[in-house]
Write a structure and sequence with these properties.
Blueprint lengths: L11 E4 L7 E4 L15 H4 L4 E6 L3 E4 L5 E4 L4
Parallel strand pairs: 2-3
Antiparallel strand pairs: 1-3, 4-5
Length: about 80
């Protein structure tokens, strides 16, 4: 459809499975953080068959933080 907003292409950290891939987890970080904050976690979970995708939120002004620009999923 025309006239609809195009979603941003988000950069992501991807941790590939070390055994046969059977599922994917998309893990969203919190306000002001990034996907890099969780990239060391998958080996600790012991789920070697899972692909983990950690997207980085776009940077925007956040009203609750006095208009400061930071990574956020929404305002």
């Amino acid at each position: 459809m025309t006239g609809e907003p195009t979603p941003p292409n988000l950069e992501c950290v991807v941790v590939e499975p070390t055994t046969a891939h059977t599922g994917t987890v998309i893990w969203l970080h919190g306000l002001g953080a990034s996907g890099h904050d969780f990239e060391d976690m998958p080996p600790l979970l012991g789920l070697d068959h899972i692909r983990y995708v950690f997207p980085h939120a776009p940077t925007m002004q956040v009203t609750i933080n006095y208009g400061t620009r930071m990574p956020a999923w929404y305002d």
